[in-house]
């Protein structure tokens, strides 16, 4: 079971690295350094707390990120609900997404908004949370010798 879980995490990491390599160079490191310098620490703390409460946070958040970003790019549209049931969140393929992924992103966004209202996008919170759930699992379950920072802080 443990080997299967680690193998699954490794496959997810490979997928993220592959998807990250298909960008057009529009991403900027430390984008919020001047407007919300604590955003990454706030999201990381939320992720650590949520992962300590339930392990399903890791695959749920990662899968949520995948469903949001894979086809049309990361826009956090998978988080939007509609009273008519016609939002992306209500699409047939997204109905099976676990609530823990949504809960992680919503709690992280609320924490960020408390410090930096109206600055950080939901899509960025989702991307940072997805990175951090993977990093949290790698830190907790894998022995990485000599390359911790390069592996743990790959920009998504």
Give an overview in words.
This protein is mainly alpha-helical. The protein has one domain (2-152): Peroxidase, domain 1 (Orthogonal Bundle), CATH 1.10.520. 57% of the residues lie in helices and 0% in strands. The protein has 6 helices and no strands. The protein has helices spanning 2-20, 39-53, 57-69, 99-115, 122-141, 148-152. It is globular and about 40 Å long. Residues 144-156 have low confidence and may be disordered.
**Number of spatially distinct domains:** 1
Identify the CATH architecture: Orthogonal Bundle
What is the CA-atom radius of gyration, in angstroms?
A: 15 Å
Please give the alpha-carbon distance between the first and last residues. 28 Å
Strand content: under 5%
Shape: globular
pLDDT below 50 for ≥5 consecutive residues: which ranges? 144-156
- At the first level of CATH, what is the class? Mainly Alpha
* Mean pLDDT over the residues: 76
- CATH topology (level 3) name: Peroxidase, domain 1
- Helical residue percent band: 55-70%
Major sheet description:
none
Number of strands: 0
- Class by alpha and beta content: mainly alpha
Q: Name the helix and strand elements from N-terminus to C-terminus, one letter apiece.
A: HHHHHH
